[in-house]
Amino acid sequence: MIFGVALLVAGFFAWLGSRLGFYGSWILLWNLVLSAYMGVFLTPMLVALIPQAAAAQNGYALTAIGVFAATLLLAYGISIAVLRGRLIAEFDWAWDTFGGGLLGFLAGFLACGFWAFSLCLTPYAQTDSCKRLGLDVESQRATLSYVTGWCGMLHFVVSSTDAPLTARQAVTALLDEGSAPVVGAYMRTGSGEADPATPGTPADEAPAVDPPQPAMGVPRDGGSDPPPEAIQPGGR
User: Fold this and answer.
1) How does pLDDT run across 32-56, given as a tens digit for each residue?
2) In whole angstroms, what is the distance from residue 11 CA to residue 172 CA?
């Protein structure tokens, strides 16, 4: 289902690319590739720096979408500043129509593929309803491979030879972390107070804490007389 939606979105972008021309479609595709690359590689770093993002139900997905959108806006702002607003240049009619349409199709499929990738970063992607709609990781192999391929090409250009992660490894690790269910941030004691020393235990699974027992010889009701069992028989 999602693959069909991606094809429809790519078809719309193909029409838009034929209107923008080859030059404008190339700028659009490049900015989308850069945004997807930053979304894949910056999301784990930002989640590690912001604990609230990791504790949120859809923290990974929201962070990836935020990085993608911010990078796209920043990239277009730089393009406008560097090119002095000339985002459209006239080429031959065949180049602008067919070349621009092809680049627009690739850009649209990439945009929809990253949207599907963001959905796979939520725990809802593992539910039965999302699996029936084709929103799980297994159903998104084609779109995820497409996003990974573009990120891998850019990573090959900008990264060093001893880079710790490849684009495929980064996408796989992000999917494993983002789709995992979020556990409670604090364990609650029997008195209902949060205990930050033992994070990661939900409140309903936390062991109850027994109330403190009074010491031997101390009355339970606050009186001054000791309990009978505390009185020891004296010797003669």
Assistant:
1) 999 999 999 999 899 888 877 767 7
2) 28
CA dist., res. 171 & res. 37, Å (int):
10
Six token digits for residue 67: 């990085």
Residue 77 neighbours by CB distance under 10 Å: 10
Q: Are 58 and 122 a contacting pair, CB within 8 Å?
A: yes
- Within 8 A by CB and 6+ apart from 6, the residues are 108, 109, 112, 113, 116, 143
Report how far residue 65's alpha carbon sits from residue 62's, in angstroms, rounded to the nearest whole number. 5
Q: Which residue has the tokens 């809802």?
A: 124
Distance between CA 134 and CA 17 in Å, rounded?
Answer: 28
Residue 195, C-beta contacts closer than 8 angstroms, at least 6 positions apart: 186, 187, 188, 189, 206
> pLDDT (tens digit, 9 = 90+) per residue, 176-216?
876 665 544 333 333 334 444 444 444 444 555 555 555 55
Rounded to whole angstroms, the Cα distance separating 13 from 64 reads: 22
| Amino acid in position 29 | L
Contact 120, 90 (CB under 8 A): no
Domain edges within the chain:
2-178, 185-209
